[in-house]
């Protein structure tokens, strides 16, 4: 875990909550947290909890399973880390790691390497100075030997599912001692094809006492997953698909062609108000091409996608965090977990495959109470996808024009991106969110490898309440002032 502390820093800006935000203004000192933990929170400069923290922390401390839905950037990472670390302190405040033993008490599962790194870095900050509480990170793209060594004596492990199961299979780690399991971004887990891996991990830590599941939505497939992995879970919903990002200005520009889109992109990136930007591409190849074109035209840009070696991805993320990189061109998977408060603009050059991903994308800006701008560039042939996004978010995206770069073709305003009015209630053909809940087919981000069912241990009886019977979850297709945490 050396070097992980700087993978992400919490913003210390005041987050402006809406007037009706439940429990806004709650102070961390009011929670029943251990003194060393409160000291570290104060040392980081934070006093005021966000709404998701104000609800989740006491509920998690009280015990029982939780199913939580909150917006990106709401502070959910601290919401689950603080009560779980507090439990580690209370269980054995003078714990000394057992050499050679990798039997964590707390397991946090993340869909991407970037998010796993961020969560682990936050955990390291919270336990700083506490003897015996070690944090380890397990993720693909890193040497096995180094991770196995870091696992020894770790009480809290943050992992991506595939590499974790690989280490379980090689007996480098045992999960039967896990007491608390966190599944972060459960919706993304399913999108990326981790359904079978989640089932296998569930079986390996079947004796756990608590499961906390976080998801952007309570969609039917997420509820089926929750039915499988949790018992009598309490639902906490702080955001829904249609909740407006009040501090993010959303707009759309119609483009006649790919060349037109590039001209619009470069005009937007030349905006003097732009601090840092994330440009979203649909594919890995597209992200490289866009970054190459921007660099050739004098812009400071770099690409980020899942096919890059992990060391390269880490360097580019660190460059973004330090402000050395102004423009990051990324795919959806690679961008998850990015929490850089200076990102002022998000630009959708390529449209997301699923409407849900739109909300995750624009959540990269407007963080820590700052204002942000989210701009979508779309060709007329993709207007059905815009309708699906508007239907999912329950918001219209206002179409704008740039003088001198107006589209020559007139878009049909029967649906998305029109100046006003709702989209038609009829589902357009070929919509990206149609028939998402059936079958055993994964989206483009699915893991290529599969695991044989005979490699999984049989489920054992435990003391947890019996789970209600239900359908298996679907596998989709495709400061001096008051301060608060504002991470993922």
Task: Considering the chains and any ligands shown, give keywords for the structure.
14 strands, alpha/beta, seven-stranded parallel β-sheet, 488 residues
**Which parts are unreliable, with pLDDT below 50 for 5 consecutive residues or more?**
1-24, 418-483
Mean pLDDT: 78
Radius of gyration: 22 Å
Globular, elongated, flat, extended or rod-shaped: what is the shape? Answer: globular
Let me know the largest β-sheet. 7 strands, parallel
Please tell me about this protein's structure.
The chain has 488 residues and is α/β, with parallel strands linked by helices. It contains 15 helices and 14 strands. β12, α14 and β13 form a beta-alpha-beta unit. α3 (76-91) packs across α4 (113-126).
Short description:
The chain has 488 residues and is α/β, with parallel strands linked by helices. The protein has helices at residues 35-43, 51-62, 76-91, 113-126, 144-151, 161-169, 186-191, 195-204, 220-229, 258-269, 284-296, 310-321, 332-335, 355-362, 383-393, and strands at residues 66-69, 106-109, 135-138, 156-159, 180-183, 210-215, 234-237, 248-255, 276-280, 301-304, 327-330, 343-348, 372-379, 398-399. The chain starts with 34 loop residues before the first helix and ends in an 89-residue tail after the last strand.
């Amino acid at each position: 875990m050396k070097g992980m502390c700087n993978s992400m820093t919490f913003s210390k800006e005041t987050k402006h909550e809406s007037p009706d935000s439940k429990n806004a203004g709650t102070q961390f000192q009011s929670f029943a947290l251990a003194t060393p933990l409160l000291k570290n929170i104060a040392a980081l400069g934070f006093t005021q909890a966000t709404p998701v923290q104000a609800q989740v922390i006491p509920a998690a401390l009280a015990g029982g399973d939780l199913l939580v839905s909150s917006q990106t950037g709401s502070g959910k990472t601290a919401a689950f880390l603080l009560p779980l670390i507090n439990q580690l302190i209370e269980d054995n405040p003078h714990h000394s790691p057992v050499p050679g033993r990798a039997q964590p008490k707390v397991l946090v599962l993340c869909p991407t390497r970037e998010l796993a790194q961020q969560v682990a870095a936050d955990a390291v900050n919270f336990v700083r100075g506490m003897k015996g509480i070690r944090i380890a990170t397990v993720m693909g793209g890193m040497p096995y030997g180094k991770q196995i060594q870091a696992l020894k004596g770790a009480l809290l492990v943050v992992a991506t599912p595939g590499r974790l199961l690989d280490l379980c299979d090689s007996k480098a780690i045992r999960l039967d001692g896990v007491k608390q399991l966190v599944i972060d971004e459960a919706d993304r887990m399913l999108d990326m094809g981790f359904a079978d891996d989640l089932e296998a991990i569930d079986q390996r830590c079947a004796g756990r006492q608590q499961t906390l599941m976080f998801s952007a939505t309570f969609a039917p497939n997420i509820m089926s997953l929750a039915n499988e992995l949790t018992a009598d879970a309490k639902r906490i919903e702080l955001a829904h698909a249609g909740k407006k990002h009040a501090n993010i200005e959303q707009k759309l520009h119609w483009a006649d062609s790919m060349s037109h889109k590039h001209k619009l992109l470069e005009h937007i990136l030349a905006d003097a108000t732009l601090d840092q930007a994330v440009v979203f591409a649909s594919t890995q190849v597209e992200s490289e091409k866009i970054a190459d074109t921007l660099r050739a035209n004098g812009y400071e840009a770099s690409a980020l996608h899942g096919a890059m070696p992990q060391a390269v991805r880490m360097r580019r993320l660190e460059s973004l965090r330090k402000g050395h990189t102004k423009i990051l061109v990324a795919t959806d998977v690679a961008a998850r977990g990015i929490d850089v408060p200076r990102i002022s603009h998000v630009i959708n050059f390529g449209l997301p495959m699923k409407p849900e991903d739109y909300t995750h994308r624009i959540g990269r800006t407007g963080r820590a109470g700052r204002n942000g701008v989210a701009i979508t560039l779309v060709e007329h042939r993709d207007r059905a996808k815009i309708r699906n996004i508007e239907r999912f978010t329950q918001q219209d995206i206002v179409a704008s024009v740039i003088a001198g770069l107006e589209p020559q073709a007139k878009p049909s305003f029967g649906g998305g991106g029109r100046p006003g009015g709702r989209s038609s209630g009829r589902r357009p053909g070929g919509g990206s969110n149609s028939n998402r809940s059936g079958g055993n087919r994964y989206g483009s981000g699915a893991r290529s490898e599969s695991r044989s069912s005979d490699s999984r241990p049989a489920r054992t009886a435990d003391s947890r309440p019996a789970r209600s019977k239900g359908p298996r979850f679907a596998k989709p297709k495709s400061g001096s002032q008051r301060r608060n945490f504002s991470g993922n």
